Amino acid sequence: ENSSFSKLLVVLTLSGSGLVAYSEAQSSDIPISTEASESKKKKRVVVLGTGWAATSFLKNLKDPSYDVRVISPRNYFAFTPLLPSVTCGTVDARSVVEPVRNIIRKKRANMHFLEAECFKIDAENKKVYCRSNLDNSLNGEEEFIVDYDYLVISVGARVNTFNIPGVSENCHFLKEVEDAQKIRRTVIDCFERASLPNLSDEERKRILHFVIVGGGPTGVEFAAQLHDFVNEDVVRLYPTVKDLVKITLLEATDHILSMFDKRITAFAEEKFQRDGIQLKTGSMVVGVSNKELSTKQVKSGEKAVIPYGMVVWSTGIGTRPVIMDFMKQIGQASRRVLATDEWLRVEGSDNIYALGDCATINQRKIMEDVTAIFHKADKDNSGTLTVKEFQDVANDICERYPQYELYLKNYKMHSLVDLLKESKGNAVKDSVEVNIEEFKSALSQVDSQMKLLPATAQVASQQGVYLAKCFNRMEECEKNPEGPLRIRGEGRHRFRPFRYKHLGQFAPLGGEQTAAQLPGDWISIGHSTQWLWYSVYASKQVSWRTRVYVVSDWARRFIFGRDSSRI
Ligand code: FAD
Q1: What mean pLDDT comes out for the span 16-25?
Q2: Which residue from 175, 257, 180 is spatially nearest to 506, judged by alpha carbons?
Q3: How far is the CA of 78 from the centre of ligand 1 (A)?
Q4: CA 431/CA 2 separation, integer angstroms
Q5: Region 142-163 average pLDDT
Q6: How far is CA 98 from CA 79, 94, 95, 108, 543, in A?
Q7: DSSP string spanning 378-435?
Q8: Among 2, 64, 294, 423, whose CB has the most other CB atoms within 10 angstroms?
Q9: Among residues of the chain, what percentage have pLDDT more than 70?
Q10: Which of 96-105, 379-388, 419-428 has the lowest mean pLDDT?
């Protein structure tokens, strides 16, 4: 690897019209064009990825004083919540993607896209090493280096196979648009194959057994889509084999959709049973061959072998190799996910931000800070605070860590404020004591309940908007910091910390029925919620072009049904 870099075959500078590549150049000899020198004066922001986090960052970055390089192996943004619909042709693959060049073309800022994958981040020298995925794109040399002043890492995550033998080789995944297209072709393949002569009934049954591993929102939605596709469209076209179709959903825990309210879980499980989708909960996959899955019951240890025609693996996400390598460099090797602070800055490195599925905000660090705030206020080291002191501390924590606000207001602070109102005067006020240990343990319970931020498009896109706003106001906030007081060090932080607003979550269950868990624990299930799902997803499209495509795909499906040709 080193020898290929030492050659430094390709160094890129940028002209207004695009990239200029200089072969066999040493960095000191590089002839830099006038335009390139001008753009050198601008701070260079390198954005890795074109997914939810990166796209919302780019769309909201308004300050034209940055020189932005977007690097991703994918030259488009994909609207992932509609991928399950692509698997069955409810929506066309082209309708859920938007070329990234369309997005950056509309910006006033100086933005360029490079179709390449970053395979190494050199935080010390502020460089990223990239490899083009286009054949012979750079005269046979596909690697190049890009310098940055600020790096925004938003490369998402990869599928997690948990190193179970045979999963990578034999299962389908549902992560990218290509995956969804491949699943669609395989489903139709299975029906065509099962319709061929000279097959035993046993073999036909195996071919038409579709297994989904993972009862999270994606696995459940895919199972529902597949069931609708088979029952609404395929059965009419393949009448001879329709009765042999079987859909099985395997889940290792006791329930599907366990992150949702119990009422939604119960509704989904009952609906699937009514629809004939076989649910196998408490069942873990231990191996996959090209025709069979081996499973083990979590509680009883009972083993089973399940013949299948197609398996879709949807069990969660893992860290990308480039991120694991970077984590080792910056002393985060022991962690599973890249840790940032609440300003989305990667811990242990300068001017590097990480957002979306590839990173998580470090909760442990936050707890340490909260404890430090307490100890600072507890001047006599008694382990208790007076009400006045406590209120100052609580306000401090709320400002700095808004996620505790609800707890502090609803639980301790409110009851203490009420107590104060009822009390007769200052003497009583000051005599009320708050035990720090009790309070800390309560906060850690809040912490464990909050868990880590979920890996969703909602979080990723809110983080992108937040970071773009910080970049837009970088100079202004340098002069007039608007963030909370620093716990360690003097003055205020430049920006307010990132705050996630949960807007609710959908679980489409098929048959034009959807379940939704909305803020304030509002639950809505049924046909009307399906219409809410249609309107939300139409409104969330990144462009009018995709919005029109998606809505017309839905209309086309209502009128003509789904297309079952294998293209
Ligand atoms: P991504 O959107 O995955 O983007 C990562 C980007 O990085 C891609 O452009 C990729 O090409 C690029 N990249 C990868 N490696 C490199 C590299 N080495 N160098 C440079 N670039 C790289 N969330 C919801 O909130 N609601 C839903 O209904 C929902 N449904 C989903 C359905 C499916 C089928 C899937 C797969 C996910 C769904 N999600 C949903 C989750 C959501 O898609 C993710 O949380 C979200 O995509 C994360 O955004 P991101 O920007 O971090 O990563």
Answers
A1: 32
A2: 257
A3: 8
A4: 67
A5: 94
A6: 8, 8, 8, 19, 8
A7: -TT--SEEEHHHHHHHHHHHHHH-GGGHHHIIIIIIHHHHHHHHHS-SHHHHHH-EEE
A8: 294
A9: 79
A10: 419-428
Residue 465, classified by CB atoms within 10 Å of its CB into exposed (0-12), middle (13-18) or buried (19+), is middle
Closest CA to 531 of 504, 553, 506: 506
Residue 50 in tokens: 């074109």
Take atom 16 of ligand 1 and give the residue whose Cα is closest: 155
**1-157+319-361+454-502 is a CATH 3.40.50.150 domain:** no
Half-sphere exposure of 261 (CA within 13 A, CB side): 17
- Return d(Cα 179, Cα 416) in angstroms, integer: 55
Domain at 167-318+503-560: CATH architecture: 3-Layer(bba) Sandwich (3.50)
pLDDT value of residue 7: 35
**pLDDT, position 439:** 61
Instruction: Kindly list the protein residues whose Cβ atom lies closer than 6 A to any atom of ligand 1.
Output: 48-54, 71-74, 80-81, 83-84, 117-118, 154-156, 174-175, 218, 320, 322, 356-358, 455-458, 460
Q: How far apart are CA 169 and CA 153, in angstroms?
A: 29
Centre of ligand 1 from the C-alpha of residue 52, in Å: 6
Please state whether beta strands 522-526 and 513-518 pair in parallel, antiparallel, or not at all (unpaired): antiparallel
Q: What is the ipTM of this complex?
A: 0.99
Report d(CA 165, CA 285) in Å as an integer: 10
| Residue 340 DSSP class | E
What residues are paired with 14 via a beta bridge?
19
Tell me the pLDDT tens digit for each residue of 195-222: 999 899 999 999 999 999 999 999 999 9
Could you read off the pLDDT of 450-482 as tens digits, one per residue? 445 788 999 999 999 999 999 999 989 989 998
